[in-house]
Amino acid sequence: MNNEFPPAEAMGLVNLASPRMGTEIHSVSDDFFAEAPRMLADTVPVFVPDKFDDHGKWMDGWESRRRRHGGHDWCILHLGETGTIRLVDVNTAHFTGNYPPGAMLEAAYCPDGDIGKADWKTVIGETKLGPDAHHLLTAHDVGPVNIVRLNIYPDGGIARLRLFGDVQRDWSGLGDTPVELSALRSGGCILGYNDAHYGDVNALISEGRGQTMGDGWETRRRREPGHDWIVVRLGATGLISDIEVDTAHFKGNYPDRCSLQAALIEGEVDLDAAENWPELMGEKSLSADNIHKFNHADLNDVGPINVVRLNIFPDGGVSRLRLFGKVVT
C-alpha cells in the first residue's frame, strides 16, 4: 500500500490521529465489518474486490453493521499527543453503498484519561457525507484536546480519519537538557520538499528506525543537474548540538552526501528562500543502511533556529532525521 500525502491545506500541520503520534482507538460502538484501527492507518485506503473474511466483505477502514433499532455509531480516539485540531478529513474512499450519510466530531481534554469526565465540545457540527470522497472540513477552535469522538449517522464505513493540527507541549523546566526538537510527536512537521516520489515524508521525523525501505523519505532518480531537499519545522526553537541522519534499508539508493541549512523565522516560511539560509552543517558523506551521527565539531554556530532544510546530493532515500538541542524560550 502506498503512503498518503496530506492535502496542500494541511501542509505545516501534524495528523494528530496518526499511529505515528501514538494515537489509539479507545472504544467503539460497533466495528463488525471492519476494525476501527484501520481508519487511522497512514496509508492510502485500498479496495480488494475478492477479499472477504468471516464477517463479509473486507474493507480498508472502520465499518459498523447495519443498525435496526435506532441510534448511531461512534468511535473514540485517545490522541498520543495533546493538540489543537485545525482541519479534519473524513474520507469515505471505496465506501459507495455503505458510507454514513452524516458525521459529527467532538473532542475534550482529559488530563487523567478518564473519558467519563469529558466535557465534549463540537469540533465539526453534523455534516453530510458522500460516497467514495474526501470531506475536508475546517475545525472549530476548541483549544487543546486529547480525546476525540467521531459520530456517524446512523451507521456505515469511514476509510480514513485525519485530524490535522498543532501539538501542544510544555517545554518549560528542561533547562539545558538536550531534547529531540525535530520529532513529529514533539510538534515537528514537514513544511515542503522538492520531490517525495516514494515513501512517507512524515516517517522522516517519526520514532524508531525505519522498518522497511518504504518507511522514510525517498526521491525519484534525478536525471538533471541539482539536488533534492526537504524542509522541517522544529517543535520548538533551540540551539542544535547533535544530528542523526539514518539511511536504514537504503542500500543501493542512499544519497551520496547531505547538508543542513537552518534559520529562525517567525510567521510563514518562504520555501524558495530556504536555499539561502545559513549552513548549519556542510556536506557530509553518507553510507548505506547506517546511522550517521554528527556533533558540535561538525556544526556551524548559527544561533537559535526553528526551521531546517535537509539537502541530499544528488537524490535518494533517508529513513530518519533527528536534531537534538537545548530549547530556547
UniProtKB/TrEMBL annotation:
Keyword Cytoplasm: no
Chemical reaction(s) catalysed: allantoate + H2O = (S)-ureidoglycolate + urea
Gene3D superfamilies listed in its UniProt record: Galactose-binding domain-like
EC number per UniProt: 3.5.3.4
Taxonomic superkingdom: Bacteria
Pfam families from the UniProt entry: Allantoicase
Keywords (A to Z) from UniProt: Hydrolase, Purine metabolism
GO BP annotation list: allantoin catabolic process; purine nucleobase metabolic process
NCBIfam families hit by this protein: allantoicase
Entry's family note: Belongs to the allantoicase family.
The protein's name in its UniProt record: Probable allantoicase
